[in-house]
Every structure is written in C-alpha cells, then in structure tokens.
C-alpha cells in the first residue's frame, strides 16, 4: 500500500489510473471476510458520497446564484493538501514531434505507443509524402495525430522549416490552450511526468527556454535539438511575432534547426533557463542513456557543453526528462522499465536506495 500511495503522488498527472491500480492491489490482498466487510463498507461509502455530492452541488449552485464567495469549490479534491502537485496537474504541455513518413511505422508509432500521449496533446510534424505508401503506412496516418500543416518541405536539410512551421502552427491554434511547447525529434525519449514537474516550478510568462545547454555558436547558447527543448508561452509569442515581421533576421529554413531557432529567440530577448536539478545534474540529455551513464562522450561535447560532463550516478538527475538517439525498440524498453516494472516491498525499496547511493564503479 505504501508503494501504491507513493505512486499516486508521483504519477499524479494520471492520478485516476494509478489510484485504480493501487485500489485493486489493496483489494486482492484482503482475506474474504474483510472483503465482504469492505463491500458493505463500500456501499455505505457510495451512499455517503452520493449525499455529499448532492450537498456540494446544492451549495455550489446556491453560492453561484447568490454571487457570494464564502464557499470555495475544491477543484482538486484528491491533492488539495499539497499546492505543488496541484500545479503539476494544471501545467499543460503541448509536444511537437518532428518526423517524416518513412518513420511513421517505426519511430512515430513507438512514441505514439509510449510517451506521446502523456503530453496533454502531442502532434507529429511531417511533410506530406509524395512516394506511394503501403496500406500499413496509410493506415497508421489515421492513428497518428499529424498536425494539419501542408507546406512542409521534405528532407533533413529543411528541418529548420519543419520546426518553424510547428511553432507557428502551435501559436496560431493553441497558444491559449497550453503553458509550454516542447519540440522533440522522433528519436527523443521524454519522461513527461518529470518534464511536467520541472515546468510546474517555472514561469511561462517569462521569455525563457529549457533544454540541454550548448554554450557555442549562438550568444547565450542554444539547446540540443535531439534532447528536446521547451518554449514558454512568452517565448512562443516572441518567436511568432519575429517570424511574422518581414524585417526580422529569423531564418525560415536552412542551417541547423536547433541553432536557428535559438538565434531567433535570443535576438528577441528569450534567455536559456537553468535546466539542471538542485544538485546540478542534467535533466535533458543529447546522447543515449548508455552513453551518459558510461561517460562515452564524443570530443566535441567537451567544448560544446555548458556544464561539466558527468558519468555514472552524476549523469542524470533523479527526475531526468529526456534522452536522445533512442531507437523504437528502446522507446518500448524505457517505457517498460519506467512504468511496468515496480519493486513490490518497502524492503526492496530500501535496498534499491542503498544501491543508488553507493559509489561502486559501473561495469559495462
Ligand atoms: C498553498 O496555497 C495557499 C493559498 O494559495 C497558501 O496560503 C499556502 O501557503 C500554500 N502552501 C504551500 C505549502 O505552498
Ligand atoms: C497529401 O498528398 C496526397 C496525395 O497528393 C493528398 O491526397 C492528401 O490530401 C495530402 N494530405 C495533406 C494533409 O496535405
Ligand atoms: C488498413 O485499414 C483497413 C480499414 O480500417 C483494414 O480493413 C485493413 O485490414 C488495414 N490493413 C492493414 C494492412 O493493416
Ligand atoms: C512571471 O513572470 C512575469 C513576467 O516576467 C512576471 O510579471 C510575474 O510576476 C511572474 N510571476 C511569478 C509568480 O513569479
Ligand atoms: C520594417 O522596416 C521598415 C524600414 O526600416 C520600417 O519602415 C517598418 O516599420 C518595419 N516594419 C516592422 C513591422 O517593424
Ligand atoms: C486529481 C486531479 O485533479 N486530477 C486531474 C488531473 O488532470 C487530468 C487531465 O486534465 C484530469 O483528468 C484529472 O482528473
């Protein structure tokens, strides 16, 4: 039970489902007599709830119609003891995932099956395929939430255009519906709950972006495109305004996507926010998880990275947000490890914590 109630708090953006799992767990572990007692109890609780609901509804209507404010209707009854979890639940995230038709059945499908739907809304941003598609490919386009953008130019050389189109589309249609706008690639893995928890502590009215910070090429630096990066509402507004101003120097195509988007934003006074945890460990990761953990960093990373490169347990914050170069198979594996496998006892939990604290060298 302790484990279950912990999970309710941790995975609170999907509170309902988790509570259900926790309850079933609890229920099955009861002996039969207790189950019967529980059943009777449940009936009383149900009746009690119905009466309480009626009372609340009545009070709500009365207080509404009389325009008085002495009864503040509780919006988040389950979490109203903790402001922090409340704000996690109300932090709305729109994920924009760049892909291409040849990846629909592999990378896009894997994201759609795993972390994509954990965003409040996710869109795949793709060009329209001119090649003849297989039946499977045509079928999958009916399942994937593909953003209805028609003017995207195919090809890796036009990634900037794809990303710019994605942000303009998000601004024009959804600026009021979300607090944060994330750009990811189709080989990015995002732990959306951690992203939401991180963003819930930030201010979306600030001209700020978050991601993995490279300190080169763009003044004040840019975020690795593959690790995914986040624009606040205010940043997206400035990006849109710049792109609709014919005088702006923001590039609409060409160059490197992450660099060009950052150049445009920094020109508009949008600054990179601190994207580390309170122990200064990275949360966004531009390489696969094995490479960060083992410390296999390519030479260029040494000069690009704004923060010192760390391996082993220092590689990644406990509330890590993303990894890059994650294959479709590894998207499913990560999802399985993070959401399906659960240590079952508090004793097990303690041994895991001890292991995590140990400084024993990692063998590869
Ligand atoms: C929770 O919110 C209330 C009202 O907004 C505030 O008075 C209180 O200090 C907050 N509690 C915490 C722990 O932040
Ligand atoms: C993509 O192209 C096909 C064939 O040219 C066309 O039938 C379809 O409507 C187009 N879809 C979009 C979203 O533009
Ligand atoms: C494609 O979708 C159609 C209609 O839903 C279905 O009948 C057909 O079996 C699907 N084909 C494949 C190869 O998945
Ligand atoms: C959020 O940022 C805006 C713009 O800088 C500022 O006016 C506002 O006071 C900030 N809100 C909080 C809660 O810090
Ligand atoms: C663009 O520049 C021209 C010439 O400097 C200026 O007259 C015009 O107001 C500018 N337009 C915008 C939208 O800033
Ligand atoms: C406890 C709580 O209020 N949970 C809500 C969090 O947000 C989701 C999606 O908007 C709701 O479905 C939950 O009820």
From TrEMBL:
Domain Fringe-like glycosyltransferase: 90-267
EC top class named in words: transferase
Gene Ontology cellular-component annotations: membrane
Entry keyword annotation includes Plastid: no
Main location: membrane
E.C. number(s) listed in UniProt: 2.4.1.122
Protein name: N-acetylgalactosaminide beta-1,3-galactosyltransferase
Source organism per UniProt: Adineta ricciae (Rotifer)
